[in-house]
Amino acid sequence: MSENKNMNEWLKDWDALQRQYFNAWSDLAQKAPFAMPSQAAPMGFAGGNPFTSSTPLPGFPGFSPFGGFAGAAAPQAAPWQEGLEQWMRMFTGADRQNETAERLIESAKTYIAMMQSAFGGASPMGEGMSNPAQAWFDAVRTGFGAHGGANIPGFDPATNPFAKAIRDVAGKGMQGFAELPAAFAPYLEQMRKEGMSWLQVPAFGLAREHQEHYQRTALALVEYQQALREYNRLMLQASQRGYELFEQRLAERSEPGRTIESLKALYDLWVDAAEDAYAQVALSEEFSKAYGALANAQMRLRQQIQIEVERVSREFGMPTRSELDSLSKRVHDLRRELREGGAVGSGERDAEVSALRDEVAALKKSLVQTARKPAPSVEIKPVAAKPEHAPAKKSVPAAKPERARAPARSATSKSRAPAAVVRPRPAAEAEGAKSGTEASSFADALAAMRRRVTGKPKLRSAAARMSKPNKDDKASRKKGNKGK
Amino acid sequence: MNPIRIAPQKVYEEAKKFQEKIAAGMQVLRTLDDVHYGATDKEEVYREDKLVLYRFKGPRKPTAKVPILITYALVNRPYMVDLQDDRSLVKNLLALGEDVYLIDWGYPDASDKHLSLDDYINGYIRRCVDVVAKRHKLDKINLLGICQGGAFSLCFASIYPEKIQNLITMVTPVDFQTRDNMLSNWVQHLDVDLFVDTLGNVPADLMNYCYLMLKPVRLNQQKYIGLVDILDDKAELENFLRMEKWIFDSPDQAGAAFRQFIKDFYQGNKLINGGLKIGSKSVDLANVDAPVLNIFAEQDHLVPPDASRALRGRTGSDDYTELAFKGGHIGIYVSGRAQREVPTAIHEWLAART
Questions:
Q1: Which residue of B has its CA nearest to A273?
Q2: Is B147 in the active site?
Q3: % residues pLDDT > 90 (chain A)
Q4: Size of interface A-B (CB pairs under 8 A)
Q5: What is the pTM of this model?
Q6: Which ipTM was obtained for this model?
Q7: Is B12 part of the contact surface with chain A (CB cutoff 8 Å)?
Q8: What percentage of residues in chain B have a pLDDT greater than 70?
Q9: Which regions of chain B are under pLDDT 70?
Q10: Residue A27: which of A51, A45, A14, A47 has the closest Cα?
Q11: If 0-12 CB within 10 Å is exposed, 13-18 middle and 19+ buried, where does residue A98 land?
């Protein structure tokens, strides 16, 4: 379109475009493979042309460009958004992906609002202005403001997450929470008149505890509302700062080659500005304090309400959250104790079990060694005759059987354990072994080992402790050792 | 000069196209089934309370001698590492011959509100490490900690250095008070005792609100406007929905663990300032003597790169490697670049230390 067209020609072009758009939209809706809900006919289908709204188009203050086609006034203030909502209504019956569709539509509405406003920005009205970008800036600002206030998610007090969290976080049971301010309105009004001193009035009599509780609750509510106001003030500040940054960055795009040539690019520029401005605020110490104060105030208020809920629950004989918490804490502690008792490397009991395991391992090793060396044959030989066998701790007993080492007394004395099961045999027996088969002496030795192992009360108790360790074991073991 | 040169015809065309895409997309949305996630077969090898330890099954026998145990964050579900067939860190590691285990923490409920970091680190993680080590007849295994799970892994490697062969941290905060850490700024004046005493477990929705408010316009609005561009592409739409599911499929946070994590990590910054104790055991990063591979994302809005870089020079290991990934906190798992770069980097780094 030429920039030299006069206003009338522009309006004719706009009208043609809008009609074209409307027709395309109608075609789409008619081709939809599902039924239109009768209560929500698509825009223009209810006998009203969506573009006959008398709402002034942004950028054309006080002027309705489509006035000439007005006909019956359509109810939609924002026909493009209404179109999106129509699609949403048709979609709502579907079982799946509703939430995504809702989020999509909510976001698209904002974007569409910006587009709608941008028609004003694209108008020739901007051409004569000292700052031509101002018309676009205003269009964007109007567009984002047209749908749901500031329309920056989280910036709008109505949708701020803290306010929503306090309503939603505990589910349906907390729905009354949202009505709390109304319930406390008379008290709050009184406080406004008399100042906070009302909450300091001493309570008396039978209901004094209740009165104090309600005073604390009212105080918590006041503090929460104050904190919320401060938080919202900073969010608004971030929003305003976002538009300032947007304006600055728009101005920077005046250079050739950097101009904005699509609505999407304009939108993205605004998003960048809004996010940067928000980050400046959200990273500030002031915001940190406001955020903490709001969260803390909300928790104090919630605690007051929980106290009241518990009181009522008790009166109805219902279990309370505190009781369940107490039980779960006990279960948790027992569970930990149980697990720590069974964990390797933790505590005295583990050390004891570990020592016993070592002892059993040593005994096994000793058995194996003995089996491999039916060395009893050595035992019958004089030490002097076989000096090469002199690790004589085993051969010496042949001469001095009475000095043979007893079975290991200490669970940790690994080095002694092998000796514990090696006992010298009488020379005659040894001779027999010498002249007999080796298998015979091996079997004898092994049988002797087994007898000794099974015949030793201490070792039996060790086996028992392995299967069921307890604190008394250590004491009884010590006692047993002393007895020897 | 006017910075905006958009003719009315262009505005009209954009608006028309936008609405047409929405109209077409709504019909595609109606035809989609519920999205599924998890691309790789896995077997349960250990279970305790709500925790399940899985071992992934690859197309062939692992060639790696030492298995990797992935320790994910508590605040999201761990299937992000195996989201779908063409977006799976696990699948790619298996293809390279690694043997991969994963801890799934489950969804804590009110009965778990007393679970502390002691329970998670000295309890659950330690027992999982022991289970994996025993299965492979090893004393040490490789530990891969992600995000908050990376912080846990650092604590674990400090307390039990004898159990860790190699340590890999991904998008892991170490310095919790860098200037660009928005989450940290928000909790500095939070009375976390009051918070947890009141809420018990911290609801997932509340956590998600906080994450969305890190980038409120992008995450609440721009993302969905961008979605319009792919509405007519069923495969892309399914990818988007799968990611949406992961983002909002968050477990509640066990109160006691949340309390200590905020106090000691965010408010006290004790991982680098010192004085951190998990249960009765002190944590000192200097005790971490295993080789360390620290992977972080350059555009991470949740864990700023500087928060991860802070690990350099703080461990007791003289074998420390950093890998800066060009992407964000989520892109490091699911982007095309991530599929090409991250598993290979991990595999090669481990191979050089076997």
A1: B217
A2: yes
A3: 18
A4: 260
A5: 0.70
A6: 0.92
A7: yes
A8: 100
A9: 1
A10: A45
A11: middle
